[in-house]
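User: What would this chain look like folded?
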Amino acid sequence: MGTDISIQRNVYLDQILAERRSHRQFRPDFCSDDEIRRILHAGLLAPFAAAAVGNSHDYFRRFFVMRRGSKSMRSVHPLVMAQITKLSADLEKEMERDPSLRKRASGFVRILTRMQETGIIPGIGTAPHYIVVAERTGFPPAELQSLAHCLENMWLKATALGLGFQLVSVTSRMSADPAFCSVLGIPPGEWELMGCAVGYPADELSPSIRPPVEDVTVWLP
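Assistant: Here's the prediction, encoded as structure tokens.
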């Protein structure tokens, strides 16, 4: 039997886990610096690949915060769009070589086409804040797993603060882009990147719907 405090903590945690959603519509007002710092602190607390990058507490993870309309946001938008255009062209060539890929990738192709036609990259300029997280590369490579832990912590903290959160997965393609890394002030290729958008949600979303645990679990002998 748990104590009243542990029961209450688990109730709150279960509520936050259930309410964590991807928000794609944001109000125009900016979050406070304190709210952003609390989200970043949650990300900093996430596990990292200590065996791969060493146990140093210095610079295994960095955060870069851009505000909508800022110089940095205006600088990175065309760089990311160029990567989207390249990704679309590369994917088209791959689909020509492998026709079966076209059916599987059709939804993703539509998303890429829409971004190129509209000039809108979801999360970069569509939300008040675009945050890039950088994880130092190491051996064996585990930085992508560390970034996943980090972003999940940030996502849950944003949910607890009543803020909207959206992954900006195209950011991962920018880790070797010299111009993008120059905006961040880091050398290209030495850090893996992932991004997210944060802001006050424009709409209230219902909790996530998942199947019962029993339906997706096999208890092995």
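The helical segments are 4-19, 33-44, 50-53, 71-97, 99-118, 143-160, 178-184. If you want, I can go into more detail on any region.
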